[in-house]
Design brief:
713 residues, alpha/beta, Arc Repressor Mutant, subunit A, 6 domains, 5-stranded mixed β-sheet, 4-stranded parallel β-sheet, 29 helices, flat, transcription regulation, PRD_sf, transferase, transcription
């Protein structure tokens, strides 16, 4: 007996009888289906004829009812088929679109319209219309649906874009947090309360058929071991992406399908350190799955690794930095500087911000250069909650886009916005007092109730008055009102008004907070335009003392600056001894302590900027009374180990600082350290080795820092 030959109502009757596994009366069935008992009797007569010679038996007993019997396995098969047919027939247009995409991704890149129409129980014309929507979804991911009359529809595009589409579909269908659970075969029945349980089960089976538990388990164990051995961490979304990517690759290779990547991109990726890690992962998987992984696939693995690494926090004088990390720091500082200029707020001294941006930008730069996309599931929320900051960050990021020679998509801008917005929150940027007028249509009584609720909920509102909509003009004329919170629309003042309900619900709070953010941004920009500065906490005497201390530091740095020349050296450590002997250091410095500080610092590895042939020699010590900078020129290049590689250097910047320093003094030295990377002219200055030219550059830098500092006092 073929299920397809039954009517919709007949299928429902059989499904109820199989699922209940008991005798049901005509009345029971009629009540469940919402039809008359006569209709049920007519349908039952037809069903008994249809199932006369089938592997199921329909048994009726007078005064008892009807049931379906048969082999347990056969009953389960019918139950599954009926569930699938039932769920497919109830698909909405959105559901059909998702089903069709799933067929191209999990089943075959070639599909027939007739087959899809039959599976979804709709006409071919409906499927043809659905394919237009499906084509748009694939086009956004760089893939194309090619329709061939009388044959079918082919999904065409690069391997890279196809894999991106697979991951996007899984994230859209289930969300990032559940994908890994599904792959690990751990999903529960509460996956999505709004989704049909049978449909969830079907999709889950498709995924597990695509990525079996056994395969994913073997891959996970392998990559976890290798990543741990190589101290390589990945964010959860990138880790899931790599796991799905590898599972797809193994399935394709086992089916002898070709995997290819552009030759130029392959050669570029082979020169990266991540490629070596990709080779280790590939070697392990080759052994486990008994197959050969080609170079092209290793390159795809490399792209995932380059786009996903997490590094430790960036500190001024701690771990040595690789070239990519130095580039990320430079871009982070550039972005922050642009945001500072637009908002008239000081953020460059926020090490958490610089560190966080650097951590994001290092893999982001790799992704952008390789044309890889990143998902940002909260992009819409970010644009809604931080619309102004998003726009400012996007404008600031244009400098980065110009430097990288590529477009920065909104998904990346969204993540950068998160870092900037968080820093502004921490800097109390949004928490200045907001002069607020509370307006209600029904009079002063209700406005006072609303005002009381506002005071309890939002501490930074300075409520200047509560009034009715009729008396609003007099308050706006006599008071400096930043914000109007009203229970009625005020068309004339809509730009500064947040319209809320009298009971102040959660959505109202969100609306008010967005207005407050807009007001603070406007205030900051006005302040910049008028060149008005606000006084920070601290007394006049304390500020004078701080200014005096920074002035002395800068004077010492200028007056004590030296250029030292060394002949041929045997090793890098010999520089430490030479610097800490003779007359190179100020007389009052404790040279043995300085030497020890340099040795301890360099045990962590040298900080090299290869393109400048420059080493940065940092040290903080009790033997140093005040900050000191000098330039060392080597007559012959010297090989120095930089983390794993050896690099040639012939210039060294020595930067010494006291063990105990004020935050402002650390910022001063950081200003100089970051300028080494950011200023393109610095390389030429140290190459020429002129004391006058170096000091001119240094004085201009310190002058900028000092002036900025004074504006905040």
């Amino acid at each position: 007996m073929k299920i397809d030959n039954l009517t919709s109502r007949e299928k429902k009757i059989i499904k109820i009888l199989i699922n209940r596994n008991e005798y049901l009366t005509v009345k029971d069935l009629a009540d469940q289906l919402g039809v008359s008992e006569r209709t049920i009797s007519r349908e039952m007569a037809s069903l008994k004829k249809s199932f006369k010679d089938s592997d199921l038996n329909i048994i009726s007993k007078p005064s008892v009812g009807t049931t379906v019997t048969g082999d347990e396995e056969i009953l389960k098969q019918y139950q599954k088929k009926l569930s699938e047919k039932d769920s497919l027939s109830e698909y909405s247009p959105v559901g059909r679109k998702r089903y069709i995409i799933k067929q191209f991704i999990f089943s075959d890149r070639f599909q027939k319209l007739t087959a899809l129409a039959h599976q979804l129980a709709v006409t071919e014309a409906t499927i043809s219309y659905d394919l237009n929507k499906v084509a748009e979804w694939f086009e956004k991911r760089g893939l194309e649906l090619n329709r061939k009359q009388g044959i079918g529809v082919f999904l065409e595009g690069s391997e890279e874009n196809f894999r991106r589409a697979v991951i996007d579909f899984l994230y859209e269908d289930f969300g990032e947090e559940k994908v890994l659970d599904i792959i690990r075969n751990n999903v529960d029945s509460n996956l999505n309360e709004n989704r049909n349980e049978t449909e969830i089960s079907k999709t889950k089976l498709d995924i597990l058929n695509f990525i079996s538990y056994e395969t994913s388990n073997k891959i996970e164990k392998s990559i976890n071991q290798i990543l741990k051995q190589n101290d390589f961490q990945m964010v959860n979304s990138s880790y899931i992406g790599l796991l799905i990517h590898l599972a797809l690759a193994i399935k394709r290779l086992e089916n002898n399908e070709e995997i290819s990547i552009e030759t130029e991109k392959l050669e570029t990726l082979k020169r990266t350190k991540e490629y070596k890690l990709a080779e280790k992962i590939a070697a392990r998987l080759e052994k486990i799955f008994e197959l050969t992984i080609p170079e092209d696939e290793k390159a795809f693995i490399t792209m995932h690794l380059k786009g996903a690494k997490i590094r430790k926090n960036v500190e001024m004088i701690e771990e040595p930095l690789a070239d990519e990390e130095l580039e990320a720091i430079k871009l982070a500082r550039t972005l922050v500087r642009e945001v500072e200029n637009k908002l008239n707020v000081k953020l460059a001294d926020d090490y958490n911000l610089i560190s966080g941006l650097t951590t994001h930008l290092e893999p982001a730069v790799s992704r952008l250069k390789m044309g890889m996309k990143i998902r940002n599931p909260i992009l819409k929320d970010l644009k809604r909650e931080y619309n102004d900051i998003f726009k400012i960050t996007k404008e600031a990021a244009e400098v980065l886009a110009e430097e990288l020679a590529c477009e920065i998509p909104d998904s990346e801008i969204g993540y950068l916005t998160m870092h900037i917005a968080s820093a502004l929150e921490n800097a109390d940027f949004y928490f200045s007092r907001i002069n607020t007028l509370v307006v209600c249509s029904s009079g002063i009584g209700s406005s006072r109730i609303l005002a009381a609720r506002l005071k309890k909920t939002l501490s930074n509102l300075e409520i200047v008055a509560e009034t009715s909509a009729l008396n609003i003009e007099e308050y706006l004329e006599n008071n400096q009102v930043d914000l109007i919170i009203s229970t009625v629309a005020l068309d004339k003042y809509s730009e500064k008004t947040a319209v809320v309900s009298p009971v102040l619900v959660k959505e109202d709070i969100r609306k008010i907070n967005n207005k407050i953010k807009q007001i603070n941004i406007s205030k900051a920009q006005e302040k910049k335009t008028k060149n008005i500065t606000a006084a920070e906490d601290g007394s006049f005497e304390e500020n004078l003392e701080l200014v005096s201390r920074l002035s002395n530091d800068i004077l010492k740095l200028i007056r004590e600056f030296k250029i030292i020349e060394f002949d041929k050296l045997n090793n890098y450590q010999e520089i430490f001894r030479k610097i800490c002997s003779g007359n190179y250091l100020p007389e009052n410095f404790d040279k043995p302590k300085v030497y020890q500080a340099l040795v301890e610092r360099e045990k962590k590895g040298a900080t090299i900027i290869p393109e400048m042939k420059l080493a940065l020699l940092h040290g903080r010590s009790e033997g140093v009374d005040y900050p000191f900078i000098s330039l060392v020129k080597l007559k012959e290049t010297l090989k120095v180990k930089n983390i794993k590689n050896e690099e040639n250097i012939d210039r060294i910047i020595v930067l010494l600082a006291p063990e105990k320093m004020l935050k402002e003094e650390i910022n001063l030295l950081s200003k100089f350290s970051s300028s080494i990377i950011e200023n393109e002219n610095f390389s030429q200055i140290i190459r020429r080795g002129s004391r006058e030219e170096f000091l001119k550059y240094f004085k201009e830098l310190m002058s900028t820092y000092f002036n900025d500092f004074m504006l905040t006092q």
